[in-house]
Amino acid sequence: MSGSRAEKPIGVLFVCLGNICRSPLAKGLFQDLVQERGVAERFDIDSCGTGGWHAGDGADPRTIQIAAFHGLTFEHEARQLDPRRDFERFEYLLAMDLDNKAGLLHAGAPASKVHLMRSFDPALKGETEHRLQVPDPYYGGSEGFEKMYVMLKTACEGFLSHALANQPR
Ligand code: 4NP
Fold first, then answer.
1. Whole domain around residue 64: which residue ranges?
2. Is the pTM of this model over 0.90?
3. Which residues is 93 bridged to in the sheet?
């Protein structure tokens, strides 16, 4: 159908705790993916943390490193969730783990907008929520960052298919 350009973009907010490790990478990967598929203008994409300790910081150096290792670079400035604006602006509030999900709901997010990021990984269909988490890599070693990259890459692809298939036209 014509005219899709004039329609409101699909709002996607990636949410973790500190907004320096997981959600910035998810945003970078998803931005790269929608560019590659030629659908970037159909999305309004951002990331945030439920906590505000790192607001204003760049991405964690280990996140920058794992992204660069896979050929991905992106700009980032951490920010905290802003419930008043974010819950209206974004249709999808994509939590990395169950704590992030609980934080969103506690802040008043409409439950229908809140999803675990990995619930869009088609290989994990039917898994319990505990198995659909992107673990916080902050206090661990570099292998946690590589695992995070792989999980997010797969989940971003699954999510894009879902979002495009469910976009009202
Ligand atoms: P993120 O990781 O939620 O993936 O950005 C974390 C970053 C910082 C902290 C915790 C998690 N922190 O406690 O400072």
1. 4-165
2. yes
3. 13, 114
